[in-house]
Design goal:
- Helix 6 packs parallel to helix 11.
- The relative contact order is 0.22.
- The chain has one domain: A middle domain of Talin 1.
- The chain is mostly helical.
- It has a two-stranded antiparallel ribbon with strand order 1-4. It has a two-stranded antiparallel sheet with strand order 2-3.
């Protein structure tokens, strides 16, 4: 873990260095995620695994690596410091919100997406069930225990479900084979293994940098303005960190939409949100239970609400530009609410 050495500095240089740490961390996450996915896909290809299966598993999990690195790093940090995992939970909830209202919103502003019947029957119901499960676990657990957290047993359930989901993807892909558009670079095995190790180390380092910078920025700013530290950490996790770790999905979806590859743009968002909950929160909570403040109630309701809204839009069989602008407007309103909540204009629950 990076040592906590930002306590006694003067304000301006402290904030600047914390911002630099976050920027370097996000760069590491995006760059080394790409290296990791490319090398992992090459190894899978050498093991004669079908390209479609690689895309559904290795690549899908790879795009969730930034969220995983940040959330696990914050989970370990909280285990050591005995604090709340506001960045870890805020990162996932914020990324899922960001993926729909910002990533998908921008994608359908560029190019409308035709929603297939198969997506309405398979991917969307799974996303709704997984999202509802997260909301139910946290809210019901909070009502019973009085503490809003994702416990270790919840994390284990999520991990079991992610393996079940991957198994479902593989079986479904074999039953309904389609030609994959995923281009997998061929490289020598030793080089691919080396790149996997380098990619994993780079992602881990990026996660450390982002959490260090994000928590430091939140604590420093909150202390200077007399704000609640947990709310400040939650704001940073739900916004700056969430957008930063969603960059792979943002780039992939917008570029896919511009090329007219609508299935990739939509599937990338749905798959990423499922993996973020089951894979990222599952591993993070298994490492250390994730405890957060009461503000998570509103954030989870927003996440569930926009997921239901997306499903409602999808039932029309077409996601168009007007829906994209609705999503962007929701993001702006939600961002405004988060800022007002943090500065105390809107009272905490």
């Amino acid at each position: 873990m990076i040592p906590d050495f930002y306590v006694d500095w003067h304000m301006a240089p402290k904030l600047l260095i914390l911002i630099v740490f976050m920027a370097i961390g996000v760069f590491f996450l995006v760059k080394f995620c790409d290296i990791f996915v490319g090398a992992s896909s090459s190894i899978a290809k050498k093991l004669h695994i079908a390209p479609m299966i690689i895309g559904l598993t290795v690549v899908a999990m790879g795009t969730s690596c930034p969220e995983l690195a940040v959330s696990v790093s914050d989970s370990i940090s909280c285990l050591i410091d005995n604090g709340n995992a506001n960045v870890a939970i805020g990162n996932v909830v914020g990324s899922n919100i960001c993926n729909i209202v910002l990533v998908l919103g921008l994608s359908i502003i560029f190019t409308p997406i035709i929603v297939k019947k198969s997506s309405l029957k398979k991917e969307f119901p799974i996303l709704l069930v997984v999202s509802a499960l997260l909301v139910g676990f946290v809210l019901i657990g909070g009502a019973i225990a009085g503490t809003y957290e994702i416990t270790r047993w919840m994390g284990i359930i999520f991990i079991v479900l992610i393996f079940a989901y991957i198994t479902f993807l593989v079986i479904d892909a074999k039953r309904n084979p389609v030609e994959s558009e995923e281009e997998i670079k061929d490289m020598k095995l030793w080089k691919a293994i080396l790149f996997v190790v380098i990619g994993a180390l780079g992602i881990a380092a990026g996660g450390e940098f982002v959490v260090f910078g994000a928590k430091g920025l939140a604590v420093t700013g909150a202390t200077a303005m007399g704000l609640n530290h947990d709310l400040a950490e939650s704001l940073v996790g739900l916004t700056i960190v969430a957008v930063g770790t969603s960059l792979p999905e943002l780039v992939t979806s917008v570029m896919a939409a511009k090329k007219g590859e609508n299935d990739i743009a939509l599937g990338n968002v749905i798959g990423s949100n499922i993996f973020n909950i089951l894979f990222v929160l599952g591993i993070s909570a298994t490492v250390n239970p994730l405890t957060t403040g009461n503000e998570i109630v509103v954030d989870l309701i927003v996440m569930m609400g926009i997921t239901l809204l997306l499903f409602g839009f999808a039932l029309t069989k077409k996601l168009d530009k007007k829906m994209g602008f609705v999503f962007i407007a929701i993001y702006v309103i939600y961002l405004t609410y988060l800022i007002l909540r943090t500065v105390g204009v809107i009272p905490q629950m």
